[in-house]
């Protein structure tokens, strides 16, 4: 493609609102442009890269027997209400009404739509297992769209859905999909980890996230320093054990603590270590209120609390509800004297504590020498805290370390979560009606593109992997006004195109410095420069990532390019 005919607007400076490299470089190099907050257009060169990622996804899906289809982005609310997700999915679901005041959602995901379709069309075990997928724009009303393509309100996603007659069959499909996802991200050249994850609003139990390792990732991965164990920090169980304190319980004492709001403030005021205090946080868990207790130096993991109650929704109680139920604001909460309508649960570490401080449920007051079970009752002890670096690995091998990751894929064993609610059944080999067993599998295609840039760039621009780059060769004619340069560049362009090589031909009447700078920004793996030695039939070939360069005769160029891409 001749660059003079293309829409590739480049920028010398980073956009003011671009915080991370992928956002900065994709905008500067003319791959994307923002239309509104969290909404982007893919310009021609960006669309080409997106297509490369899509094609890899399609190939790997088809290898495991998944069939592509297309579903509508506009989804009627009735389907979401069948599963209960019209209310539980939350404010990220974009909702709208048509002219007849009927409620719809813009598709954030398609479990309801595909389940509705399959329940009408699949009736027999002979039609199972079935796996279908689509690549389609999705919509989520992010409260704070940021980081360019990594957190947008409209994004390109591959979503797949499997229907099986048994959990054993689902396991087989899940394993195939897991391997297909691994192949996708390997082919994209990514350094990634598959980690144990939480299913969130998707429902179901077993699930893995595919995380691209990056310092700009919004997720924290907990991994073993000696084994293959890896999990999202929300899901990593704590296997640390706590020895019961042998201290003699002292008399409970109420102490005035004016202005001391945080655990650190209270610990310093009372002159003890953070570990010697109890942190109390009030949550609303579905329709009930739960006071969750951890040791003062630990943090409550609300995902573990949600799973403990098998709840649909967990959120911090409002300040109004907190004061109504416990008589105090957030800074002085504690488990002593809690009303019956509030359940008290605690992390395992709390069970071992004696003579510790806690809030007195009165503004500016705390207790000293509180001891569980003597001074307050706990309904149950459970693993309720976030794992920390240095904790034992849950698999018994090594200790936990942290890394940051960008989520690019997620696979779920949904089980009967949707099919039971939507009455998706089939007749088994004995003629009995059985509920279908489902799986759901997503890849953020546009997120994957951004994640690649996060791992493949330098100070001059993007350094695309070979099979993802928008073009295989960037051909530069430094001065197309000179006949020998234009003629040789045209000749090389035609030769490469005839051989099936993808070429971006910079035939613009621009200064050489501008062309070199743009070429570095674009990140095409190989650059061919037709310059001052054009009259001799000699050109310069340079590898973008390594900077290695050679001077070649025109007759050698095609073979060089073919061999370089075979390597």
Automatic annotation (TrEMBL):
UniProt GO BP: prolyl-tRNA aminoacylation
Q: What EC number(s) would the UniProt record show?
A: 6.1.1.15
Q: Does the keyword Ligase apply?
A: yes
Q: Which residues form the Aminoacyl-transfer RNA synthetases class-II family profile domain?
A: 33-465
Q: Which reaction does it catalyse?
A: tRNA(Pro) + L-proline + ATP = L-prolyl-tRNA(Pro) + AMP + diphosphate
Give the matching InterPro entries. aa-tRNA-synt_IIb, aa-tRNA-synth_II, aa-tRNA-synth_II/BPL/LPL, Anticodon-bd, Anticodon-bd_dom_sf, Pro-tRNA-ligase_IIa, Pro-tRNA-synth_IIa_bac-type, Pro-tRNA-Synthase_IIa_type1
Q: Does the keyword Aminoacyl-tRNA synthetase apply?
A: yes
Query: What's in the keyword line of the UniProt record?
Result: Aminoacyl-tRNA synthetase, ATP-binding, Cytoplasm, Ligase, Nucleotide-binding, Protein biosynthesis
Top-rank EC class of the record's enzyme: ligase
Q: Which intervals of the chain form a coiled coil?
A: none
Return the PANTHER family for the record.
Answer: MITOCHONDRIAL RIBOSOME PROTEIN L39/PROLYL-TRNA LIGASE FAMILY MEMBER, PROLINE--TRNA LIGASE
Similarity section: Belongs to the class-II aminoacyl-tRNA synthetase family. ProS type 1 subfamily.
Recorded protein name is: Proline--tRNA ligase
| Organism placement in taxonomy | Bacteria, Bacillati, Bacillota, Bacilli, Bacillales
